Amino acid sequence: MDADEGRAYPRAKLHLPDGQRVQVRATRCRPDRLGRFWYDYALELPTRTDDRRRGPSPTTYLFTGSAPHPIIQPIEGQDYRAIHAPPRQERQRWRLAPAPPTASRSGYFVHRLNCAQTENAERLLTDPEALEMLADPTVAVPCPVCRPETVLRTS
What Pfam families does this protein's entry cite (predicted)? Predict the structure, then answer.
């Protein structure tokens, strides 16, 4: 699947368009703007692989997708806490990295997660933590490349 391949994901029931029901691994659950919950899932399907020397052999193909509830439904007894996205105020969307000595009077820059300038990031920050760091310019300032303050003002 990805880096978490060995992780035990909870199972869920996926209702296919033709009426069949299959069990899938639920890998993530998050609400959309309308309040519906969408589940990302992985389904292993049988297939074959062809080898010139040995001929065909059975293997599996990992199909990944996403579907809203009630098309995908939790199975009683499964623990889904680990796949739910944390609340907005707890999401770590910022990186704290030491500022170059010549770049700023403060000791740190606050960056967006995808900023190319964060190779030496020390830790991740939530929105409230980033705002707290940026409140005192002697502690941290916004990165001049990714400009996190433009997003933090509206979140």
Answer: DUF6233
pTM for this model (two decimals): 0.56
- Would you tell me how many other CB atoms lie within 10 Å of the CB of residue 48? 11
Q: Where are the beta strands (DSSP E) in 4-153?
A: 11-15, 21-31, 37-51, 55-68, 72-74, 92-98, 108-112, 123-126, 140-142
The Cα 128–Cα 109 span in angstroms is 15
DSSP state for residue 136 in the 8-state scheme: S
Mean pLDDT of 115-119: 79
56: which strand partners? Answer: 50
pLDDT at 2 over 60: no
Is the peptide bond between 101 and the residue preceding it cis, with omega within 30 degrees of 0?
no
For 36-82, write each residue's pLDDT tens digit: 999 999 999 999 999 888 889 999 999 999 999 999 999 999 988 88
Computed over its alpha carbons, how large is the radius of gyration of the chain? 22
